Amino acid sequence: MNGSFATAWYFAALLFFIGLYCMAASRNLLRQLIGLEVMSKGTLLALIASGSMSNLSLAQAVIITMIVIEVVVVAAGLTLLVKAYRTNGGVDVWKLSSLKG
Amino acid sequence: MIEYREFLYLAVTLCALAAVMSRNMLTAAISLAATSIGVALVLFDFRAPWAAVFELSVCAGLITVLFISAVSLLRKEEPFFAEDRTRFRLLPVFALIVAIGGWIAGWPFFEALADYARFGARGQSLGSMLWESRRMDLLGQIAMLAAGVLVINSVFAAKKAGK
Q: What are the tens digits of pLDDT across the range A3-49?
């Protein structure tokens, strides 16, 4: 049982690293959102593995909450991305300097 | 012999790598959808059908549609924004280093975590759990959805007012 849990956490950590690397390495806002999604998949795997050992209903409730928050974050992020593209003519985060003081 | 669940974990990781590394954004969005489908299958395998259905319909469905719409809106942008691909080509090497490091150093830590995960085991149905114990979560979900609608509405309303 511990082996199955550890396997899930191992792959969750790997997925989290891949998402984090994508967010850190890319300057493209869309790719950063993809990195965020990959990180959330890793978190989801860790949550379900923990839930399967303790309380699956609680894990499912938390996962459903997480998915709802995730979709709102992605929708808002993509809206801001389209807006930034129309304003600055690009999706490069280094070009988002309109709020610079 | 590789088991079904381990095969799913591998498939999810490979799809995530493809989503991060692909040059074309449309391919990245579709690989992300494949990652979500893999995670949904893992959830089904963990006997968590409600979470799996949410993952399948919302993450593999709705979020993919959102990404593809955004990509189609920014289609003209792509040729003009060539990123330095060297960092992404190095990702499999770094992922392999993390995988080997995690296998050697992280495994005992993950096994120790299993003892903590056993705390708080109480058998309740998902409905009673959501409505009785996690009522604040539902309120939070409604607040988040309202905030999301407000953000989208305000961003596009600002453009209209500007015109």
A: 688 888 999 999 999 999 999 988 888 889 999 999 999 999 999 99
Alpha carbon distance, N-terminus to C-terminus of chain B = 64
| Prediction pTM value | 0.82
List of chain B residues whose C-beta atoms are within 8 Å of the C-beta of residue A19: 16, 20
- The answer to whether B38 and B11 are in contact (CB under 8 A) is yes
The radius of gyration of chain A from alpha carbons, rounded to an integer in Å, stands at 17
**For testing contact with chain A, the best of B44, B58, B110 (most A CBs within 10 A):** B110
- Give the tens place of pLDDT for each residue, B99-129: 888 888 888 888 777 776 665 565 567 777 7
ipTM: 0.90
Q: What is the number of structural domains in chain A?
A: 1
What CATH number should be reported for the domain holding residue A56? 1.10.287.3510
Q: Give yes or no for B160 touching A (CB within 8 A).
A: no
